[in-house]
Amino acid sequence: MGHAMLALISWLTLQLVSSIQPTEQGPSSTSAPGFLGSLRGHEAGIYALAVSDQLVASGSKDGSILTWNLTGAAMQDASRAMETPLQKLSGHAAGVTALTLRDELLASGAADNSTKLWNVATGELVRQLPHPKTVFGLSISGKQLASACWDGVARIYDLENEVEPMELRGHTGGLYEVSHSPLDPTLLATASADRTVRVWDLKTGRQLWKFMHKDHVTALDWSPVNFTLATGGWDRRFRIWKIHAEEVAKCRGGVCGDLVTWAAGLFFGMDVARSTMPS
Ligand SMILES: *[C@@H]1O[C@H](CO)[C@@H](O)[C@H](O)[C@H]1NC(C)=O
Ligand SMILES: *[C@@H]1O[C@H](CO)[C@@H](O)[C@H](O)[C@H]1NC(C)=O
Ligand SMILES: *[C@@H]1O[C@H](CO)[C@@H](O)[C@H](O)[C@H]1NC(C)=O
């Protein structure tokens, strides 16, 4: 989950910069261990961030998206790289709520409910994917884009052909986040305001597992090395769902057993509990 960690660190930096504007000297962020610099350029708060090997994209409350070149060479002159965005992508009429980057493709979701695909090399708007409500989460894997929409439906788009998306229905509340398993991109996880996390089989469009939290689930990420899933939300519980490869195969075959979970209440100490959750 190094990517997520990098995103988090960058997000914190950007948040800080946006929250301290217009004052030049903020809190002592510049003395924090590992601090490289601040990306200055947004005129309103930052809601979304995406990170790839070369680029950072940041999306703002005012609808603008900035991309930044953070490769090693560019970082040699960090002050310059950090003051000057590569591109400014304008087109969203309301706050940007989701971003994801893969190579030259950037996908953005916004409170104007228009999800857009951009070519970050040229700054061109490539395609528009209309949604009935706001998209809060996006995931790209291979030729597929998945969106987490506030209407409770996860949609799977073919990035090469403009065909109707596959729709995953079952959640009874809006979606905050969606993620393809890096290990098997035909497994997709969604996090929802209905207090559940669901894992879907993209080969069939079927729901495999439903995991319960006690409140809105706002964040999730897969392990890059196995089918372990981490989730978190308003119940202040960070949960780890251990799914074994054999269990995935069995569940696809129709037998979805209970899973072992680990829950850590970050606000109430390391109250780690072993429990099984009904599917
Ligand atoms: C980023 O900066 C590096 C080093 O200056 C450069 O080689 C690379 O082409 C830049 N990438 C983009 C996407 O502009
Ligand atoms: C966009 O979606 C939000 C809910 O996410 C809704 O309140 C709003 O009316 C929608 N706006 C448009 C222009 O459809
Ligand atoms: C997945 O990998 C993590 C990290 O190596 C390990 O702690 C965990 O036990 C593994 N999960 C399973 C189900 O094998």
From TrEMBL:
Q: Does the keyword DNA repair apply?
A: no
Annotated WD repeats reside at 39-78, 89-128, 168-210, 210-251
Pfam families per the UniProt record, alphabetical: WD40
Spell out the PROSITE patterns in the cross-references: WD_REPEATS_1 (PS00678), WD_REPEATS_2 (PS50082), WD_REPEATS_REGION (PS50294)
Q: Which UniProt keywords apply?
A: Repeat, Signal, WD repeat
Output the InterPro entries linked to this UniProt entry: WD40/YVTN_repeat-like_dom_sf, WD40_PAC1, WD40_repeat_CS, WD40_repeat_dom_sf, WD40_rpt
Q: Where is the signal peptide?
A: 1-19
UniProt-recorded name of the protein: WD repeat-containing protein
Species annotation: Cladocopium goreaui
